[in-house]
Design goal:
Length: 388
Amino acid sequence: MDSGWIMLLALALGAAIGSGATVLVVVAERRAARAAAVVTPHIPDGVDQVLDAMGSAAVVVDPSGNVLRASDEAKALELVTDGRLTHRALDDLAIEVRQSGEPVGRDYQLSWGRFGDTTRPMYVRAAPLGTRFIVLIAEDRSEAERLEEVRRDFIANISHELKTPIGAVSLLAEALEPAADEPDRVRRFATRLSTEAARLAQITSDIISLSRLQASDVLNAPSEVSINQVVSRAIEQNRVTAEGRGIDLVLARAKHAKVMGDAQTLEVAVHNLIANAIAYSPEGTRVGVGIDVDDGVVSIAVTDQGIGIAPEDQDRVFERFFRVDPARARATGGTGLGLSIVKHAAQNHGGQVRLWSQPGRGSTFTIQLPQAATDAGSAADRTNEGAT
């Protein structure tokens, strides 16, 4: 065989080997792509955007139970750990949905926290996503259950508070008829009727005030409020009561201050603090009210020389219907709602209430509110003018 044929045969053999190698490479690449698709399955387009827009705790899992996507809320609720669902119950729910092909929703008490010794109520709904994946959406019901518990407690408490004066009014009304010919007894019963009627009216007024403060639109149209005027009116409302008990009610200090909010709401809050201070102070003592402004914060402090509040009760005094001294509160017509109204009024104005107290030495309640921006600017201008 001459050299020409040998060369052609070599070229043909080389072409065949090259073609085979190319086919092998292509086949290998396709197999690798299929393997990669199995290992890293493709989530349908738009799912990530939908999960982000939902703002809920959402998780997408594959047929092996691996977590492919988890929203920030799901991570915050500790539903995902090391690429898997944290709770076996959720794994079982995903398996059930995969087998049935139908969405399923259930309530769970899922453990959470570092040590897993507490639980959180959640409603979890699972549904198929495409043909291979399952999406789980969890709703944290802790706040809903807390609000329901508060509602039940409120109804129970208000029922108890109303039952006492209503029962007293009923009994006094029954006692009036047999005593029609005894003017002294009639006057005594009438006085007690007036007292119980006033108590019912106060409870009703406080409930209306508290409901108003808890409404979402209570400060939809805030206006600039002079704290000096609010405090002055609240002091005058309590002046007669203080004088009747021999208590010196004074405005100790009064810096000019303005806030944005509702004047009537703030007046009720300050009035409640002053009324409480008078009710829990011995005769011959002093109740002082002060207004201060520091670094954009307006403080309204009410200080008494009364019985004080024990440390274990200080965290509870702002609870509805809680009374440090129930006997004294009933004797003075207290409803147990006054400080709760103060707390909600401050919070609705972007502020807070602080308490200092020592048994036997008295208490100081301080409402702190953000200073109005226009007032803060005027104060700064006055300071600069003084410096100049």
